[in-house]
Design goal:
This protein is of the alpha+beta class. It folds into 3 domains: 7-47 and 253-316 and 425-468, FAD/NAD(P)-binding domain (3-Layer(bba) Sandwich); 51-85 and 112-129 and 243-252 and 319-424, Guanine Nucleotide Dissociation Inhibitor, domain 2 (2-Layer Sandwich), CATH 3.30.519.10; 133-162 and 180-239, Orthogonal Bundle (Guanine Nucleotide Dissociation Inhibitor, domain 1). Helix content is 29%, strand content 24%. The protein is built from 14 helices and 20 strands. It has helices spanning 17-28, 54-57, 76-79, 96-104, 133-138, 144-161, 181-192, 196-202, 207-217, 226-239, 257-269, 334-339, 399-406, 447-460, and strands at 7-13, 33-36, 48-50, 65-72, 83-85, 91-92, 112-115, 117-122, 125-128, 249-252, 273-275, 282-285, 293-298, 301-310, 321-333, 361-368, 371-378, 389-396, 414-423, 434-435. The strands form 4 sheets. The protein has an 8-stranded mixed sheet, with helices on both faces. A hairpin with a 2-residue loop joins strand 13 and strand 14 (301-310). Helix 1 (17-28) packs parallel to helix 14 and helix 6 packs across helix 10.
């Protein structure tokens, strides 16, 4: 390997999502970046691998992945065609990540699948969630009165959270500016209702409608505060219909690790250096200030830096921390999955450019008492499983609800379970020259990683532009 410079503007430890976003952004503005990962693969806790690699991967998983267990009953040939994502997440069509991919043009490194339908567990069957107008009016699981109530509620919330002023009584004189009416109305609601559930009650929604909205559209528990519930519903409704009339989500074709690799590629294009399998990485603390990181040692050489970005994996030696959520992945025959679907799951969706009678990707959700789960069911068209099989990847903050939910699918050909931790690090570490990316989040999308990376970037480089668009190849002019 060519000898590296002994000093960098930034050294980044790990190739997780937050780390890779910063790597791409910093290299993009001309900063010198060295990104090291002790693993042979990109992504850290967002990585992907084939089922055949399970034995090898279980010994190199990040410390945030605990209690990792799996069982399988298939031939080696078929297992080699099953791709497992440690973070089988989805993207809101108008979420922070999709907007950033478009803004930076990093989408050119990626492929996506549109998620066509949403299902929820009710009466021992997976039934379609009436998310769009066309689905709502076709649904046989809600009455005509419920359809009107749900549509009125959605429209009311959209109007309330929009930037456009609400229509009001012309006789009202005490509102200083029509643009502030929504804000005043929201403030009044926050003072009146503690929870989103109480606000839905005030709109006389039935228990079934409340279940659809809170569990399937907001991915939240009944006792979530009103502001959070409204924000989650807004995120869903603003994304609905962008790429399909009945969809609000996109799925990275080859898993979340492709997102991390996209920004690592961007970093490389602009001079960043990424090295995998850097097993000898060592943090060196200042001799006078034992809690201040001074250098990074790698391959017997010491490297100085202006600022260090280090994932918690590199700052802790234990596998201890707070439980974020539990995840389970199942691979089952497509016929077993079809038996769990309600007949109305296959109705034709009106309004698309072409009639759709069946979706091959679903967002799934379920609730048991106060516990919730959500996840993804993907067919072989997503490159995750072989033909005639589906992959179900579900997550919950309550492990028992996952076990109960999985019982309806019988014996899978592959079953993987693990707990995601937010690893603990010493509170004594001096963070004046250190930034620590966030760990995985339970909820859909990666807003948390994008928000952290953007804030950190603007703090480190306040005069620079955050991830501007990469030039098109045809616009690049070689030196004379």
């Amino acid at each position: 390997m060519e000898e590296l410079p002994k000093s960098f503007d930034f050294i980044i430890l790990g190739t997780g999502l937050g780390s890779s976003l910063l790597s791409g952004a910093l290299s993009r503005i001309g900063k010198t970046v060295l990104q090291l990962d002790k693993n042979q693969f990109y992504g850290s806790e967002y990585t992907s691998f084939t089922a055949k690699e399970l034995d090898k991967m279980k010994d190199s998983l990040p410390k945030s992945i605990q209690n990792f267990k799996y069982s399988m009953s298939e031939t080696d040939l078929k297992l080699n065609r099953i791709n497992v994502n440690l973070d089988n997440n989805v993207l809101y069509s108008r979420g922070e990540m999709v907007n950033l991919l478009i803004q930076s043009k990093a989408y050119r490194y990626l492929e996506f699948r549109n998620i066509g339908s949403m299902l929820t567990s009710m009466n021992s069957k997976m039934i379609p969630v009436p998310a769009s107008r066309s689905e709502l009016f076709q649904s046989k699981h809600v009455t005509l009165l419920e359809k009107r109530k749900m549509m009125n509620f959605i429209q009311k919330v959209q109007l309330l959270l929009s930037e456009q002023p609400q229509p009001s009584d012309e006789n009202v004189k005490d509102v200083p500016d029509s643009a502030n009416r929504n804000e005043l109305e929201l403030q009044k609601l926050f003072e009146t209702f503690d929870t989103f559930d109480a606000y839905m009650d005030s709109n006389k929604l039935t228990e079934k409608l409340k279940y659809f909205i809170s569990t399937s559209l907001c991915f939240s528990s009944p006792n979530v505060i009103l502001s959070e519930g409204l924000d989650r519903l807004k995120r869903f409704m603003t994304s609905l219909g962008k790429y399909s009339s009945s969809s609000a989500f996109l799925l990275p074709q080859y898993g979340a690790s492709e997102l991390t690799q996209a920004f690592c590629r961007m970093s490389a294009v602009f001079g960043g250096i990424t090295i995998l399998d850097a097993k000898s990485v060592e943090i060196i603390y200042d001799s006078e200030h034992s809690n201040l990181i001074q250098k990074v040692k790698f391959d017997s050489n010491e490297y100085e830096f202006g600022h260090l970005i280090a994932e918690k994996e590199y700052l802790t030696k234990s596998g201890q921390g707070n439980e974020s959520f539990h995840q389970m992945t199942l691979v089952i025959p497509e016929n077993d999955w079809s038996k769990c679907l309600d007949a109305d799951s296959k109705i034709e969706i009106i309004g698309d450019e072409e009639p759709v009678t069946k979706s091959d990707h679903y967002i799934i959700s379920s609730a048991h008492d106060k516990s919730r789960l959500w996840g993804l069911c993907a067919s072989s068209s997503s490159c995750l499983v072989p033909a005639d099989h589906v992959m179900i990847s579900i997550r919950s903050e309550d492990k028992e609800i996952l076990t109960e939910f999985a019982k309806q699918f019988g014996d899978p050909i592959l079953r993987i379970e693990f707990t995601v931790l937010d690893p603990s690090i010493s509170t004594d570490i001096n963070q004046s020259n250190l930034s620590i990316p966030p760990s995985q989040n339970y909820y859909p999308d990666y807003d948390y990683a994008v928000t952290w990376a953007r804030k950190t970037f603007l703090k480190l480089c306040p005069e620079a532009e955050w991830l501007p668009a990469m030039p098109d190849p045809s616009d690049i002019i070689l030196g004379e």
